[in-house]
Design a protein that fits this description.
Largest sheet: 5 strands, parallel
CATH superfamily of the largest domain: DNA Cyclobutane Dipyrimidine Photolyase, subunit A, domain 3
Oligomer: single chain
Structural class: alpha/beta
Number of helices: 23
Strand content: 5-15%
Distance between the termini: 38 Å
Helix content: 40-55%
Strand order of the largest sheet: 3-2-1-4-5
Number of domains: 3
CATH topology of the largest domain: DNA Cyclobutane Dipyrimidine Photolyase, subunit A, domain 3
Radius of gyration: 24 Å
Length: 513
């Protein structure tokens, strides 16, 4: 094991001072360890000036800094271009090595390669570690040594590898406390407190008002609450009006919780008689997360292209009429209540329930005929928990262009999805109060309600709530025609028969947890 006098830990998507791979290895290998975080202008400058993610990160950074001070250290916080700031800070501190945790997004991989090259020129080592997944890159491969493209065999291989080691080896925490005395205070010439939101050039948001609590304490509070409900997760997770999810996705995104700790808790509960099916279902969603990271690592082209290349031949709607449809979708004005309620939840809170992410994505793609990449970019802009790999995987699943995707001839019916997963209309009424007085029977498709029912509820279609901007049955036929270029390439007689008989399918595309 290489030994260093002084090292620097570069925090990124791992904003915690416990069970932290890079911090652990730096402390074990170094006499003194400094800690830093950089608000990277290469990322921030492209964001809207009111962005919940920036506020989440800043609050989490302040909590991390306080936690490191309690351990006898501190956190250097800089605002600039990370590629330049890391090398400059490393030289000012006189460190021998920089330690950080892997980031799998293509732009981040390229950035880290440039940082490593620059540090190498200065004689400074650069070490990266696995931290935000249980298994990464080539750790889970098929028997032929190839990356998986279908989730279920990947999951089976993932579980086999996990249980091949005794004592849950892959889920063990990286213990920081035994080495905490090696943490160093930043020298005066390098010390930098966290900037304010205004100094970063951003405006306050409604982050706390919508119940998103950042930092390690926020993640811990959410998991403690979820743990009491975990045994029922498999029964409650699909219903947006029910408190069934963990709501930990933003904390997983920014590393204020440990993926190893979460998976370990799920595995331990699975082994108890009272554990029920919920923990196994939730662990499966954590495996989906690893799966999408793995896919992105092996196929970085999916950021802009279909995983299945033949789907790039699909011709999407474009022009002013398509733009109008897209904006109606973004603003929750489609006339389909479940879709509109979900889109309003996203705009108001920065969050959307996983079942609804699938419903709204399928509606944009297969009812409106709009390129999945437009929807993906919109979600990337609005979601506090935005994760490139999972967001891309979910959108390509809905577009049928991804690995392990929803077959193109299975097209969600937004009305039957609404009737199944929000039967009493509680979620719809919360985000669409104009429909509050409609009976349950009619809240899913108000335009079909008798005039007397609408009049009694005080609703006029087109005045109080829009009529449907597209007829689902007609849109379904257009979608099948649109995907004809794929049908010719991928299906024969049996496939055509399956297409003709296909109806509204539930599907499974990974969870936001």
């Amino acid at each position: 094991m290489q030994r260093y006098d002084r090292s620097l830990v570069w925090f990124r998507r791992d904003l915690r001072n416990f069970d932290h791979a890079a911090l652990y290895h730096a402390l074990r290998q170094s006499r003194r360890v400094y800690c830093a975080f950089i608000f990277d202008r290469a990322i921030l400058d492209a964001l809207p000036r009111a962005d919940r993610r920036v506020e989440f990160i800043l609050s989490s950074i302040n909590e991390l800094a306080a936690g490191l001070r309690d351990m006898g250290s501190g956190l250097i916080v800089l605002h600039g271009h990370a590629e330049q700031e890391v090398a400059q800070l490393a030289r000012r501190l006189g460190v021998d090595a920089v330690f950080t945790n892997h980031d799998y997004e293509p732009a981040a991989v390229q950035r880290d390669a440039r940082v490593a090259a620059g540090l190498q020129e200065a004689g400074i080592a650069f070490h990266g570690f696995k931290d935000q997944v249980i298994f990464e890159k080539e750790e889970v491969l098929s028997l032929a040594g190839k990356p998986f493209s279908v989730f279920t065999p990947y999951k089976n291989a993932w579980l086999k590898k996990l249980h091949a080691q005794d004592n849950d080896f892959y889920l063990k925490a990286y213990s920081i406390a035994p080495y905490a005395d090696r943490l160093a205070h930043p020298p005066p010439h390098c010390a930098a407190d966290a900037p304010t939101l205004e100094q970063l050039g951003f405006q306050p948001t409604n982050l706390l008002q919508v119940g998103i609590y950042p930092g390690m304490s926020g993640g811990e509070q959410l998991f403690d609450d979820f743990y009491e409900r975990l045994a029922q997760y498999h029964e409650t997770r699909d219903f947006p009006a029910v408190k069934g999810s963990s709501f930990l996705s933003a904390h997983l995104r920014f590393g204020t919780v440990s993926i190893r700790g979460l998976a370990r808790q799920a595995v331990e509960l699975m082994r108890r008689p009272e554990g029920g099916q919920g923990p196994a279902t939730w662990l499966s969603e954590l495996i989906w997360r690893d799966f999408y990271f793995m896919v992105l690592h092996h196929h970085p082209r999916i950021v802009a292209r279909a995983f299945k290349p033949e789907y790039d031949a699909v011709q999407w709607e474009n022009g002013p009429a398509a733009d109008d449809l897209f904006h109606a979708w973004c603003e929750g004005r489609t006339g389909y209540p479940l879709v509109d309620a979900a889109m309003r939840q996203l705009r108001l809170t920065g969050y959307m329930h996983n079942r609804l992410r699938m419903v709204t994505a399928c509606f944009l793609i297969k009812d409106l005929g709009i390129d999945w990449r437009r929807g993906e970019r919109y979600f990337a802009q609005e979601l506090t928990d935005y994760e490139l790999s999972s967001n891309n995987g979910g959108w390509q699943w809905a577009a049928s262009s991804g690995c392990d995707a929803q077959p193109y001839f299975r097209i969600f019916n937004p009305v039957t999805q609404s009737q199944k997963f929000d039967a009493q209309g509680a979620f719809i009424r919360h985000y669409l109060p104009a429909l509050a007085a409609l009976p349950d029977k009619h809240v899913h498709a108000p335009w079909l309600a008798p005039s007397g029912v609408l009049e009694k509820a005080g609703i006029a279609i087109g005045r109080d709530y829009p009529g449907p901007i597209v007829q689902h049955d007609e849109a379904r036929l257009r979608t099948l025609a649109r995907y004809a270029v794929v049908r010719k390439a991928r299906v024969g007689t049996a496939g055509a028969e399956a297409e003709a008989n296909a109806g509204d399918e539930e599907g499974e595309g990974g969870d936001t947890m």
